[in-house]
Design a protein that fits this description.
single chain; 677 residues; alpha+beta; Beta-Lactamase; 5 domains; 6-stranded antiparallel sheet; 27 strands; elongated
Length: 677
């Protein structure tokens, strides 16, 4: 093997020299691997100017462009070789110029297929989390401790009637009324390592000058020194509730000229750090202008590559004889941070002593910075995804949980996402009880469900929670549903508040109705038409109680008997026993009234049904009997009959007592039940 072949075959990238006529002069083994060539001889037959596939994938054009412009060019191309090998390539073209003419071109080919795939995956993940955050029905933002906004989602922009360009860089304290700013600033200053997350509600001023209320969940983001450098917040509008080498030479001199123009660092260094050879790329990478200047220094003693893991490098190369794609990050003598990918091998004498290390280095700083930026962006959206106080999920149509955030796991009563993934939401083993059939039916018909409010029951602890849910069906190319993707907001507190408000209104309406009935009774206190008075009392009692039947009786203490004065409700003709005397001891409901002289609630007995035929005829089962008392003496009763037991509150029962007293007063005026009154 010639020296040229030895050098170019240690380069981890593909390398070839092509003359100005398009003929391949030399090629290394790595390039044969990249294009899938069966042999070097087969590859040398290819001419860069005439080869169909090189033309098709624009590599011939890049080659001619390098010759015409007489300068280095770098391109990225997708290429399918004669042997069917597909690759994403980064190509470095470097012209060899003599007498102002390009006589040949060095070409370094780096297979970046894996990098492209990784970058694509990173972008897709970043896009996924960004889309999720943009779809969350909540405002999401990040801002510096001083209030300067660094990120806002679309809903945040919509809320403040602005776009991202107008909002980014703006201070969010400007949206808070002047009288509330000090309190908001004080709230942010209280964040620390011990208190990283908190909630805060405050009033804001929108772009049109209106005031609104927002609730924010704020999370402090700390730098490596433990200092807060940013906050991330998720907010909702709560106004209604409270008002995201490599070049080679044919000869020592010629190849030195070639190598100096290769945009890849090539070197030969002794084990103790002396530089035997370095091309211009390596010289510049270390911060030098010439090999003569670099040769005055020792890589190890003068610490020219700070933070470089030299011991690890030597251990690896001694063990494996060569290293490939060894990625490191270090500082050159000017303090510049450089990420590199290094291929090297150890060269020994016949006795096995190390003569030197030779290798090549690619500067991958740009790629690494791009990858780190993508990772940082992904982490940023992942943090937001994990910290929002809104449930986010993906489930299959058959009930399998594909993914969800920690808030959703906690909401469903599980300890971890792994535990939740084992559960079938459609089986009885699920901790969640809700109408999933209705959920699937709506999405099947409409493709989505939006702001749907429903009650969930968490079986493990018996909790009943109300949620507002929005979800959509994600389908494959054939239109089949792959999964449901949605968000859930816990609105239990709001629902409870609404229920309390409804109960208050209901109670107020009942009181108004009761007061109205008493007022109506009082209007007729001076009327002497007894039938009219009877009708007023029974109508009022029926309206008050919603009873099936109301009967007004007069009681004779001497004979312990009752006489029907009036009734209101459905009675058969045979049951209308007006003025017929009923033995008070013959019926349990009447006998108890004589004994207790108090409001009675009970079921009709068999004796009642036998004595009072209307009970049996009407299918009545339950009664409330109101005593009509004068000076604690029974003068009559109001018998309210129901088909089934009823419940009245203590306030309603108190009102029945007042109603009975008022009714007694009316009857006194008509009948003069007590002589002399």
């Amino acid at each position: 093997m010639s020296m040229l072949e030895s050098v170019i075959n240690c380069i981890h990238a593909g390398y070839l020299i092509v003359d100005f006529k398009g003929n391949i002069i030399e090629i290394n083994n790595r390039l044969l691997e990249i294009v899938g060539s069966p042999s070097k001889q087969e590859t040398l037959k290819i001419n860069f100017l005439n080869h169909k596939k090189l033309k098709e994938y624009k590599i011939t054009g890049d080659f001619l462009n390098c010759i015409q412009k007489k300068k280095n060019i770098i391109t990225e191309r997708f290429y399918v070789s004669n042997w069917g090998k597909k690759s994403n390539l980064r190509l470095f073209y470097s012209p060899v110029i003599k007498n102002d003419l390009v006589v040949a071109v060095h070409i370094v080919a780096e297979d970046i297929s894996e990098t492209k795939t990784a970058q694509k995956e990173l972008k897709e993940n970043s896009k996924k989390f960004k889309e999720i955050l943009e779809d969350i029905p909540a405002m999401v933002c990040r801002f510096k401790p001083t209030g300067e906004l660094t990120y806002v989602n679309d809903l945040y922009c919509q809320y403040f009637c602005s776009n991202k360009e107008q909002l980014l860089g703006k201070n969010f304290f400007d949206f808070i009324p002047e009288e509330d700013k000090k309190e908001a600033m004080k709230y942010l200053k209280e964040f620390s390592k011990k208190k990283q997350i908190d909630k805060y509600e405050h009033e804001i001023i929108t772009k049109d000058g209106k005031k609104s209320y927002q609730s924010w969940t704020d999370r402090a983001i700390f730098d490596d020194k433990g200092e807060i450098f940013e906050f991330q917040s998720v907010g909702i509008d709560i106004t209604k509730e409270k008002q995201t080498g490599l070049l080679l030479q044919k000869s020592e001199e010629e190849f030195k000229h070639y190598f100096d123009q290769v945009p890849v660092a090539l070197y030969k260094n002794t084990k103790d750090g002396n530089v035997l050879y370095a091309n211009k790329t390596y010289q510049k990478m270390l911060g030098f202008n010439s090999l003569a200047e670099l040769s005055k220094y020792n890589l190890i003693k003068d610490n020219l590559i700070k933070n470089y893991p030299r011991s690890e490098f030597e251990n690896l190369i001694e063990e494996k004889k060569e290293i490939k794609d060894y990625e490191t990050c270090w500082l050159n003598r000017k303090g510049k941070k450089i990420w590199t990918s290094e291929n090297a091998r150890v060269v020994k004498d016949e006795q096995g002593n190390v003569l030197y290390y030779e290798g090549m280095i690619l500067d991958i700083s740009q790629r690494k910075e791009a990858e780190l930026a993508l990772l940082k962006t992904e982490k940023k959206y992942q943090n937001l995804f994990n910290s929002v106080s809104i449930g986010i999920y993906r489930t299959t149509p058959d009930g399998k949980m594909l993914m969800c955030n920690p808030y959703m796991v906690n909401l469903l009563g599980y300890k971890s996402m792994d535990a939740l993934k084992k559960v079938d939401l459609e089986s009885s083993s699920s901790n969640l009880l809700y109408d999933r059939d209705f959920f699937k039916k709506v999405i099947s018909e409409q493709g989505q469900i939006k702001d749907f409010e429903s009650k969930w029951i968490i079986k493990s602890d018996g909790r009943e929670i109300w949620v507002r849910e929005s979800s959509k069906a994600v389908k494959d190319d054939k239109g089949n549903i792959k999964y449901y993707e949605g968000i859930v907001y816990d609105i239990t507190k709001r629902k409870h508040a609404e229920d309390k408000l409804f109960d208050s209104y209901k109670h107020l309406g009942m009181v108004n109705r009761q007061v109205g009935i008493l007022a109506d009774l009082n209007k007729f206190k001076d009327i002497n038409n007894q039938n009219h008075i009877f009708s007023i009392i029974t109508k009022s009692a029926l309206s008050l109680s919603n009873a099936k039947l109301c009967l007004l009786y007069r009681y004779n203490n001497d004979s312990r008997s009752f006489c029907l004065l009036d009734s209101l409700g459905e009675l058969y003709e045979d049951d209308k026993l007006f003025n017929k005397v009923l033995d008070g001891d013959a019926s349990d409901c009447l006998k108890l009234m004589i004994e207790k002289k108090d409001i009675l609630k009970n079921h009709f007995s068999d004796k009642d049904k036998e004595e009072l035929s209307f009970i049996r005829n009407q299918g009545l089962e339950f009664y409330i009997n109101l005593p009509l008392l004068i000076r604690n003496e029974l003068r009559g009763s109001l018998l309210l009959c129901f088909n089934s037991p009823v419940k009245f509150s203590s306030q309603e029962m108190d009102f029945f007592e007042v109603f009975a007293v008022q009714s007694t007063f009316l009857l006194m005026n008509v009948f003069a039940l007590v002589d002399g009154d």
